[in-house]
User: Fold these one by one.
Assistant:
Number 1:
Amino acid sequence: MATRPEVLNEQFFDNSTSNETQVDELLQFVEPSLVEKVKSTFFFVIALVSICVGTLGISGNTLSIFVLSTNGLKNSPARRMLRWLAVWDCISIVSLLFFMDYINVIWFHATKNEKVFTYWFPLIHKFSDPLFATATMGSVSMTLLLTWERCRAVCTPLEFRQTSPKLIWGSIAGVVVLNLPGWFQLKIVPVERDGETFYNYTDSDFGRSDFYRVVNSDITHFFIRLLIPFGLLFYFNVKIVASLKSRVNRVRDMTSSSEPACLSKSVTKIVVAIVSLSLLTNALFCVYMVLDSLATTSWAGSPSHGFYAQGMFMILLNSSANFIFYCLFGRKFRTALKNLCCLKLG
């Protein structure tokens, strides 16, 4: 996810760069201290809530991995994909907590205290950004693969074939390869100011290359990571819902087939819920992408900054909520969870 590091460097290490936004101009007649207090409180609350939601999300996804690995559930291709989805979501939450924490708390106050820019600040960003990009793409690709399977199972049950494990592993390998260039985008450099040494991140030679700028451009990001996959998710989800409404008896008969774990109606309901929430939560981030591409001011000084923080929180919420859907719609999941908890407590 490109965060335009060269623009950020200018803002935080060049005092001539203004941090005023269009919102600030509208609030110029309000007491400045009150405006700063409201801003600070807003970002701090988002960070605090994010940590709480992320902690619960990591716990829920970890439990999901263990439950979906039990003997009664681990052999189903659909539940294998759900297990990988939980793995990707765990990684997303961990990287996003690092990412959001310093954006909403440290980064917001950085313009007032440049000593915050120690070695750890740019180092965290250097690795958390590509890790988050890899995990979110992995989560979306696994959701897309799972939704495509459910669509085939519900709409054409007679011709349905289970998803091959090779296709699942191919999806994982493809995500890693596609996001590999992001790990080499940035480098850490020392910055001397007032006799003190700060550390900052900037584009590496590879990050400044024409090839990388094309691959990681806003247009490429918008189409490859957002528009195309979520458009397909919307299409498959609509087809699944329409089939479930018009062929209730047919779907019920599917559960009596030779592969009930794969063709179960509960898995289909889980997938529909996951995709619906994913489409809803990523809508705000799409708004940020559009505003950011149209902004004429620096990134942190543009009106899209607030949408970015809220969009990141919605993505965090999406990665943390799947455990609830498993418990609501998955009878076998609830039974396996109960047995696992009783085994641990016993």
Note: The chain has one domain: 28-345.
Number 2:
Amino acid sequence: MTYARKPDQTTIFPPEIGSHEEALHKPFSWLVAALQHDPAAQFTSFTKNYSYGIRTCMEMVHATDLASGDHADPSHPPLLSVTAREELMLFSIEALGTLGDRASEEIERLNQKHAKGAR
């Protein structure tokens, strides 16, 4: 089977799938259309997504720790295996690092924008 590839995409897709505009599934965004390309709004949306994801990971780790503690009930095993718990912790650490990096980039962008406007 031969697949078409758009130059700006890193993945390939079968031509019969059609364009993004024709697809039934539309990408989700917290932002209204007018804010889709606003850097500050994009950062806020990114922060919300990452924060909720990290929170979910931490809730799962916490539930596992409660079920594995001194008062663990053998009839209710922990939510996560030791390996899965560790993977979620490491994922969360990386996600927080990424969030911090993006915040630094946004601060730099805002500072540069302010410096240009102050001249």
Note: Residues 51-68+78-119 form one domain.
Number 3:
Amino acid sequence: MRIALISLIIIASSFFALGSGDDDRQQVEHGKPGVGKIRVEAQGDFRFKGVYFVPEGVGLKFFYGICGGNGPEGDFGGIPPKRFKIQRSVAGEIKTFSINVEQLLHANTKDFELMDGDIIFAATIIF
């Protein structure tokens, strides 16, 4: 009975934590908009979340470094996410791309070029 109650409390607190995300906080901006720059947003388990104004042609590998890598969230205290989810507007529709982080960072694969308005989400690793 005691284990069931503790489990219920943990699940409930995780649920409420998901609902209290960054939506209520003002977005932090990094850099300045300008000619030759694109706006890209980092959400989730990044060390430095927020809106970034970066040079056109920047790839996801480089952007991950700009954001300080993975954040300290999750059960393992700061291991990289398994995948990045990128939302991008293409011809008026929102498309979602899923990128394997390990392959992107450790293999000789082509970098994923970011575009103006992209939103990158790094999921927190939780059991």
Note: Residues 2-19 form the longest helix (18 residues).
